[in-house]
Specification:
SH3 type barrels, five-stranded antiparallel β-sheet, 99 residues, alpha+beta, single chain
Length: 99
């Protein structure tokens, strides 16, 4: 009794390869593109830029450091945040930018 005499191991592997390829092009590739876009936006931040953090804090960049930013959130109130917590730039009217 031979259970799978007509099928080769390669033909059983093909559906898994196809599923991985579809997953890669639908999920992984777009996520990588979005991550690169966010990294470029964070790298381009400079003094005077208005941003919003992922926690919803709006502020103006006063100092850019290696891993953090100093934000002015009110008169005489500055906070230090991690660059990775920046959600995006804010347009002139205070709404988050849709770039």
């Amino acid at each position: 009794m031979e259970g799978g005499a007509g099928t080769s191991p390669l033909s059983m592997l093909i559906p898994f390869v196809l599923i991985f390829a579809v997953f890669y092009f639908i999920v992984i590739l777009p996520a990588k593109k979005q991550q690169k876009k966010k990294e470029a936006m964070i790298a381009a931040l400079k003094k005077g830029d208005r941003i919003v953090t992922s926690g919803g804090i709006y502020g103006t960049v006063t100092t850019v450091e290696d891993q953090s930013l100093l934000l002015k959130v009110a008169d005489n109130v500055k906070i230090r945040i991690a660059k990775s917590s920046v959600a995006g730039p804010v347009s002139g009217d205070g709404a988050p930018s849709t770039e």
